[in-house]
Every structure is written in C-alpha cells, then in structure tokens.
Amino acid sequence: MTEQFPDKKGHFGIYGGSFIAETLMDPVRELQEAYERYRLDNEFIAEFEWELKNFVGRPNPLYHARRWSQELGGAQIWLKREDLNHTGAHKINNTVGQALLARRMGKKRIIAETGAGQHGVATATVCARWGMECVVYMGEEDIVRQAPNVFRMKLLGAKVVPVTSGSKTLKDALNEAMRDWVGNVDDTFYIIGTAAGPHPYPTMVRDFNSVIGKEIKEQSLEHTGRLPDSIIACVGGGSNAIGAFHPFLDDKGVELIGVEAGGDGLETGRHAAPLSTGKPGVLHGNRTYLMEDDAGQIIETHSVSAGLDYPGVGPEHAWLKDIGRVQYVAATDTEALDATHKLCRIEGIIPALESAHALAHAVKLAPTLGKDKNIVVNLSGRGDKDINTLADIEGITL
Amino acid sequence: MTRIATRFAEASGRKLLVPYITAGDPDLDTTLALMHTLVKAGADVIELGIPFSDPMADGPIIQAACERALKNHVSLVQVMETVKRFRETDQDTAVVLMGYMNPVERLGYARFAELAADAGVDGVLTVDMPPEEAVDLVAELRKHKLDSIFLLSPTTPDARIELVSEMASGYIYYVSLKGVTGAANLDTQEVAGKVAHIQSLTGTPVAVGFGIRDADSAAAVSETADAVVVGSVLVALVGEHGAQPDVLHSKLFEIVNGMRLAMDAKAGAAA
User: Fold this and answer.
1) From A299, which residue of chain B is nearest by alpha-carbon distance?
2) pTM
3) Which of B75, B130, B151 shows the shortest C-beta gap to A295?
4) Distances from the Cα of B3 to the Cαs of A279, B20, B22, B146, B182, in angstroms?
5) Would the N or C end of chain A have less CB density within 10 A of its end CB?
6) Which residues of B carry out catalysis?
7) A chain contacts of residue B185, beta-carbon cutoff 8 Å
C-alpha cells in the first residue's frame, strides 16, 4: 500500500493533485523531477541523514511516561520526543530536506509561510546554516501573537513579511508565499511547511518526516519487543502525523489516530477540524477536506494552538480517513490545556499546544486499555513558544 | 457556433477587447450596470470574476475586490443570476466566468454547467485548474456547449502548449508576465514574439492579459494578439469610485473606449 500512493500525478485516491495557476506548472514540474531524482540518490540520503544526526540531534528518545501512565491507570504511554530536536519541533526534519534539495537545484532564495512561527524558525535556521536568502510570510495577527518567534527569525537573518489580506493568518500567508513564487520562479524555492500543497509537496514533506515513524518502530522494538498498539498525533496540515503514521500503514495491528483542533467544540462550529466536519474541495494546490461555507468560500478557523489553525489538511490524511486506515478525532482547547498542565506537572515536560491535542486524546484512550498495551504519542514540539498564550489565558502578564 | 467563436469570426481584422471586473464588487446591481457600460465602451467579451476568499493568483487589487464582494456574501449562483439579467437586453456580448475551483467544486460540475448555460454564460476559466486535472469539468462544460478557457504562461513549454490547445476552446489566455494580476513589468515586444509562437502551435485564438493598463499597451499587444484582456486597472477604478456611480461609469467608459479606439486605429493602420 505504501509504495502505491500517490500516483504519478500526486493523487491519493481522489485527493491531492496539482491545482495551481499555469505560471507555477513549470517550476512545480522542475521540483517534481528534482525530487524524483534525489529521493533515491544515495549521496542525497546520506547527507540528509548526516544533518539529522549532527545538526538536528536525532535520534530523539521514545520516552516512557511512567508516572502519567500510572495516574491514568491503563495503557503505557510513550512520548516520541520531537520536542528535543534543534529548534524545538519536528518542522526541522522537513526544512533540512527541502533546503538540501534547493541547493542541488541551484536556488539561492528561499520563501516560506508560517503560522505559529515554528516552520518559519526552522526555515530561517536552515537558510542561515547554508547561507541562503530567506523571506518568511506571516499573518499580521500571528506576528502579534507570536512575537518571540518573529524575533528568532530575524536573529537568524530572515526577512519577515506581514500579510494583511483575508483573515491575516496562516492560510493568507500561504497565499502570499504562492504569489511571491509566481513572480520569482527563476531563482526561488518555496519550502512549504506541511504535508499539503501541489504534488510533490505532500509526498516530499511526508518522506522527510517519516524518520519519526521509522525511529518509533525501532525504539518500540528495542523497549518493548513489539510494535506499539496505538500511535496518536495531532493534525493541522498533518506533517508530524503523516511522518509518524506512514511507516506503519502496512502494520494493520497498529491503530493510528489523528487528533484535530476541536477549538470551542465541534458542535459550536468554532474549530479547525476539516476531517471531522468538512467536505472535499480544492485549496492551496490540492484537493482535500476543507472548512468552507455553503458557497465554497473558505471560513476562518479557531484553535488555541496557532499551528493547528488551518482550514485544510494534507491530502494523504483525507485519503487515509476515507479508506478507514486512520481514525480522526478532535480535542477541544480546554482538553488540550488540561493535558498541557498534566504533562508539565507529572512528567516535567512543557508540550507545544499543538502536541497537547494528541496528549488529550491519550487521556481518553489510555484508561480504556489494559496495562500491557502501549500507546505512542508524538510530542511534536515543545511549549516554550506558548508561554505567552498560557499566561494570557490565566490572566497573567509576563 | 458559440458566441465567443462568433465574435472572433466576425472581427475581420479588428482585435477583440476583453475587460474583466469582479462580480459583486461592490454589489451585483453595480456589476450589471457596469457590464452594459463596458459593452458601450467597446467590449466584445466580458470576463466576470467569481469572488473567492483565497485568490492566490491575483494581486492586491483583485484580492481587495474579492473581499469587498464577499462582505455581501456574493455567491457563484448569484453571479450566474446576474449574467441571466444581463442577457435580458444583450444577446451579443460573450461572457466568461473567471475564478477559482472551490466554489465550482462545492456546487458540483454538472449543476454548475447547467446553471451557467441556462444563464447565458459562454465560457469558463478556473485559474487553479490546469488541463491535467480538468477532464471531468471540461466534459460537463462541453455537454452544455460552454467553452473551456485555459491559461498559458511565459514558462509553458511547447509540449504543454499543444496539450492545452487540445482541451481549450473559445480562446487561450496567455498570461503575459511571470507574476500575479496587476503586476507592472510588461515587455510588449517579448509578448509579441511569444504570442506569434503560440499562434503557430494552435488554431485557437490567443488572448493576452496581465499587465495591460492603458490605450498604448493595449494597442501594442493587439498587434499580434487576437484579443486583449484588461482587468486590474478597471477593478482599481471600481475600488476607488464604487460609491459614486456616475464618476465610476464615466471613468470606466473613458479608459475602455480609449483602448478600443487605440486598438482599432492600430488595426486600421495595419490594413
């Protein structure tokens, strides 16, 4: 199954594809050919692996959260510590891979979109690492909400461009980055931060993040002698989840669960859960599930976590939902915040609010399973970036 | 023969003028009145933009127009109803709907094609739907004798020009520069060379748009192009004078008619 998808044009069933304006068709074709060539190139793979080990700090641990497992009174919970990567999240796996590809394609200028700023920081980091020009598009609203990450990007030498159109958040930053790319196709490489966009992005971002699932596999065998019973990951665009899930798609005994941002609750309509409530449509270069109104206009999303605040989702997730291989659920803001506090106090780990959605589902699942079962939660990022948000919610001024 | 084909067939040396405005900006009644003004000023085909929340291929001017239209929740169905009202008094001017896929996806291809044909729409251009993905949509449009219009760009290789040409009907829209709508760096000589090359590969008429902003650039492009598309400069006028209908109509007439006269003068001089 894993080798069959996507097809040559990037389709996962009816999802994916390349829905882009004509001016981008040729640069996207150039990227498809470059990726086709280098994904199987031994020298490229060796360099990517060297960077993951020596620059990113992989492999990161699969950590047994014993105290938390005991408190929940059911299955054993294991945390895949992507939060310990350089720059504090899984995002760097992908930016390292795409930057290496950009270098081989002779592109000197890198552009990216960012919501919470994690992908922007990870992109600015690799641009500094290889001396490339870096321009990051970020919604005006997000620039205010995520000031520390904006400053980090600037420290790393990136130019951060405020986006004032539409809802002034992640989706609009993506629109603006696409516009930049259309106007600068000759020298510019667009590093998309999630497993969405026109083919080959969903596949490429998945492949660069699949190191997460491969390590989970090895480390599970090492620690427990078998594969985990369940793997839980949060899903915004879905890059950390697809990276964790993909190496397990053929292991039918492993239950895979993606957790979307339930915001104020699915019943309120104020959330960011297209797989749970949306319909298939076309946005940002691919066909996938979207949050939209009856007329097909994209609607604003709501989540306490800026990184999940996106109206679409990667096309492979849409397909995995339809074929039933992955189960998609949602966790509300409140559930995610509760799980954040639990992990801080019980395990001494401050999780990113995005990852806390996956933790929140583990809180529901673990007590229903026996103590001999193993649940892996992908702890996709650390929560240092969220301390302002957490303090605000508690009415504290830092 | 479709209305678009008729306009090209009857042009006899004269080049077609194709103004674009965003439907529902600032409201649909204004759009309807502006369509008639565009015809009086010399339009052969009107491209009517379907407002979309995320117009990725458009610059800030058309993006702002979409936002103004969406404040009133203007929908694709309402845009087609407006074309139907336009057809009550105009049977000759061709109308092309231009926009993004998602509103069409939501309505469903079959329903969309049926409603569009019933309203008197002549052609459809969805900018984020390349021919490779468009087989099903084109089939539905053909059932209703609607033309499928596709884009070509300066980066399109010859093999793709032939592929696009096979699926396109009505006209092919050559995007004259690498950039979004309303960008300013148009080189009319380079465009002329490229258009002549495209014409050598296809029998379908070639329209040129993106970056045409005045009578001079329209006339220059019309030397080789079969049709000239002008959008952002008109949409900017709507944005500026939307609240003053008289000023808006006279300014819009003035610029479009100026292009018409300059293009006709160029055609006359050539003949």
Assistant:
1) B53
2) 0.96
3) B75
4) 35, 17, 21, 10, 28
5) C
6) 47, 58
7) none
| Token representation of residue B42 | 């010399």
CA distance B68 to chain A (A): 11
In the set A80, A91, A107, A171, the catalytic residue is: A91
- Alpha-carbon distance B40 to B59, whole Å? 28
Q: Are B40 and B17 in contact (CB under 8 A)?
A: no
Nearest chain B residue (CA) to A20: B128
Most B CBs within 10 Å, among A11, A14, A19, A286, to test the B interface: A19
Q: Digits of tens for pLDDT over chain A (398 positions)?
A: 455 689 999 999 999 999 999 999 999 999 999 999 999 999 999 999 999 999 999 999 999 999 999 999 999 999 999 999 999 999 999 999 999 999 999 999 999 999 889 999 999 999 999 999 999 999 998 898 788 899 999 999 999 999 998 888 899 999 999 999 988 989 999 999 999 999 999 999 999 999 999 999 999 999 999 999 999 999 999 999 999 999 999 999 999 999 999 999 999 999 999 999 999 999 999 999 999 999 999 999 999 998 999 999 999 999 999 999 999 999 999 999 999 999 999 999 999 999 999 999 999 999 999 999 999 999 999 999 999 899 999 999 88
Picking from B75, B107, B155, B156 by the largest number of A CB atoms within 10 A of its own CB, the best residue to mutate is B155
**Can you list the alpha helix ranges (DSSP code H) found in chain A?**
22-38, 42-51, 66-72, 91-104, 118-130, 140-145, 147-155, 170-183, 201-209, 211-224, 239-245, 274-277, 315-322, 333-347, 353-365, 387-393
Q: Is the distance from CB of A143 to CB of A170 less than 8 angstroms?
A: no
Find residues 139-178 of chain A whose CB sits inside 8 Å of chain B.
165-166, 171-172, 175, 178
- Given an 8 Å threshold on Cβ–Cβ distance, is B54 in contact with A283? yes
Give contacts of B183 with chain A, Cβ < 8 Å: 183
Residues contacting residue A106 through CB under 8 Å, at least 6 positions apart: none
Q: Is A297 on the interface with B (CB under 8 A)?
A: yes
CA proximity to B267, closest of B205, B221, B209: B221
Options A18, A51, A69, A113, the catalytic residue: A113
**B105–A282 CB contact, under 8 Å:** yes
φ, ψ for residue A235 (rounded to 5)?
-130, 115
- Record the tokens describing residue B149, joined without a space: 């219009």
Inter-chain contact A165–B100, Cβ cutoff 8 Å? no
Q: Which amino acid is at A360?
A: A
Cβ–Cβ gap B130/A27 under 8 Å? no
Three-state SS for chain B is: CCHHHHHHHCCCCCCEEEEEEECCCCCHHHHHHHHHHHHHHCCCEEEEECCCCCCCCCCHHHHHHHHHHHHCCCCHHHHHHHHHHHHCCCCCCEEEEEECHHHHHHHCHHHHHHHHHHHCCCEEEECCCCHHHCHHHHHHHHHCCCEECCEECCCCCHHHHHHHHHHCCCCEEEECCCCCCCCCCCCHHHHHHHHHHHHHHCCCCEEEECCCCCHHHHHHHHCCCCEEEECHHHHHHHHHHCCCHHHHHHHHHHHHHHHHHHHHHHHHHHC
Residue A276 annotated to the active site: no
- Please list every residue in chain A whose beta carbon sits closer than 8 Å to the beta carbon of residue B67: 165-166
